[in-house]
Amino acid sequence: MLRVTLIVLLFSVFFACGDKLDCDTAFDTPFTVEVGEEYCFPDGSTLLITEITSSYCPCNAQCVWQGETVVIGSWTDSESKVIALLIHEILKDQNEAWTSIHGIALTRACEPRVVNLELIINDPSLEPLCDESTSINEALYNDGPKDFIDIKDASITGDCLTISYSASGCSGDSWEVNLYDSGKVAESEPEQRYLRLSMMNPEACLAVFEKERTFDISNLQIENNGTLILHLEDYEESLRYTY
């Protein structure tokens, strides 16, 4: 009887191990996801993809905004706590700070559909990352979208520039906000750079909404220097960035 019991136990352990996920999905690295699949990370946390939706504007319609892809699923952290996740392609300020859509391949049909999608999951145990990057682009600094935006406050923590702003709209969900650097550096001590917060606002409502977004400014650093003065257009105070 002991021998039979031992065989049954070994049989159970074998299949339990066989069902265990390989925790080889890397943090901070793009990986392709599919509906119904579960991905395990080195710390034992898992991501389950339950749905991928697309709401792109078809070619035969006029839309208030272009639409986006949303990944729906759940995250189980290393301590077995489960949270629901919505990962947006465009409305990135609504994502968890450590999740983002890296790349999407679409059909060429009149109503686009997702055929391949990549995510990046940053290690949530590390200090939260900034929401967006900063683009060094003189053309967009000068001629990018210039819909009205009211900058309420700006501050720097680490490599993140936090900007609070408001504008009119229906919900603010379709605002497209980007931070552009002019690409020019004023030779002074410390040196100076120039930024503009660009807004494209397709919403034709008169309500006013206030939002906050953080931008990674680490690409503005100048070699052999540890301090920059940043001038944000339409914001009275200059910002001191030490790195």
Summarize the structure in words:
This protein has two helices and 15 strands. It has helices at 2-19, 138-143; strands at 31-32, 38-40, 46-54, 69-76, 82-88, 99-106, 114-121, 132-136, 150-157, 160-169, 176-186, 191-200, 207-216, 227-232, 239-242. The strands form three sheets. An eight-stranded mixed β-sheet has the order 9-10-13-8-11-12-14-15. It has a four-stranded antiparallel β-sheet with strand order 2-3-4-5, with no helix packed on it. It starts with a helix and ends with a strand.
CATH topology label of the largest domain: Immunoglobulin-like
- Given this structure, which CATH class of the largest domain is correct? Mainly Beta
In N-to-C order, the SSE pattern is HEEEEEEEEHEEEEEEE
Question: Which percent range fits the helix content?
Answer: under 10%
> Main beta sheet, described?
8 strands, mixed
Helix tally equals: 2
Query: What form results from the Cα inertia axes?
Result: globular
What is the name of the CATH superfamily of the largest domain?
NigD-like, C-terminal beta sandwich domain
What ranges have pLDDT less than 50 throughout 5 or more consecutive residues? 1-18
Q: Any idea what the CATH architecture of the largest domain is?
A: Sandwich
- What's the Cα radius of gyration? 23 Å
Taken together, the total number of domains comes to 2
> What is the mean pLDDT?
87
- Number of E strands: 15
Proportion in β-strands:
35-45%
Which helices and strands occur, and which strands form pairs?
Blueprint: H1 2-19, E1 31-32, E2 38-40, E3 46-54, E4 69-76, E5 82-88, E6 99-106, E7 114-121, E8 132-136, H2 138-143, E9 150-157, E10 160-169, E11 176-186, E12 191-200, E13 207-216, E14 227-232, E15 239-242
Parallel strand pairs: 8-11, 8-13, 12-14
Antiparallel strand pairs: 1-7, 2-3, 3-4, 4-5, 6-7, 9-10, 10-13, 11-12, 14-15
